[in-house]
């Protein structure tokens, strides 16, 4: 750690997508970084679209998000410096164990077509979060415009994936959710993953340092130090092992360039 860094405001401000905060991985990484460096991280959670808008105010040093198209637009507009890969997991289509739309084992387009044709209730976050952006991509790729009484845009969607999953379970409906959220709530719900394993369901999570050209006051060096930790072998190992002992499978997979170089 460069001693000149410690002369700056020794706090990093970060906006983050909701899921990694709710599962606890953001807190674990932030605590470990503070333990190593003495630098604290203050973070606020919001859906990816909102988190990026929050970061456009210049009040944050970096942002963790998961919607490539929105991230690229944010950078093109000059607010962020670059997308840096941190981790990934995947989304699943989840629904009642009885599977009234009979989608289990079908391809993604077939499953979405069946949900629409049978008019079985589907819950959408509808909030331009990374999960909602992914959901819209999947409908679009299947050539389906999801409208009708069966398609419910939940007014509580902005509360995040945990709240949305609980609501979907109460409604005994279908939705798209990230696997980490499902695993963390698995014991409390009865709905189950029915469609999974398609490459289109991969969920890539990136960190973007906020542009010091646009916002000269940002803690650029501290943000870069935290990013270096996130993408290092130590940070990536924490991500790989996070709660595997509890759930018996990974919640997240390491995905930094540094990690992939180490594993070659």
From TrEMBL:
Naturally occurring in which organism (per UniProt): Desulfuribacillus alkaliarsenatis
Ranges for domain PBP: 16-234
SUPFAM superfamilies noted in UniProt: Periplasmic binding protein-like II
Chain segments annotated as transmembrane: none
InterPro entries named in the record: ABC-Tungstate_binding (IPR052738), PBP_domain (IPR024370)
Pfam families per record: PBP_like_2 (PF12849)
The protein's name in its UniProt record: Tungsten ABC transporter permease
